[in-house]
Amino acid sequence: QVQLVESGGGLVQTGGSLRLSCAASRFTFRTFVMRWFRQAPGKERELVARISSTGGSTIYADSVKGRATISRDNAKNTVYLQMNGLKPEDTAVYYCNALGSRDYWGQGTQVTVSS
Known about the structure:
By secondary structure, this protein is mainly beta. Helix content is about 0%, strand content about 55%. The protein has strands spanning about 5, 10-15, 20-25, 35-40, 45-50, 60, 70-75, 80-85, 90-100, 105, 110-115. Strands 2, 4, 5, 6, 9, 10 and 11 form a seven-stranded mixed beta sheet that branches. A four-stranded antiparallel beta sheet has the order 1-3-8-7, with no helix packed on it. It is globular, with a radius of gyration of 13 Å. The protein starts with a strand and ends with a strand.
């Protein structure tokens, strides 16, 4: 069974940093585009960042541009999201997504930024 397991979320103060990880298993990770989404209470899920299968191309939402870095390690089947300068509006559940021949989702990890 395909698995995407996020970790690294938690409670952080405004201006702090977090590094989210998403460990993938049971599919050919290196062939999939990987994305991070987030969903805040009462809001739609939004794309935060995207990375190509090789890691050579990245895209960021305007709301996190300059504060977030997405990266991947295909040898470890893991994608990361480094978030710096966190703001209360970054509070959300963060989801990892694998986009390829199929579309896979993780269960999410909560990020809470206190003001």
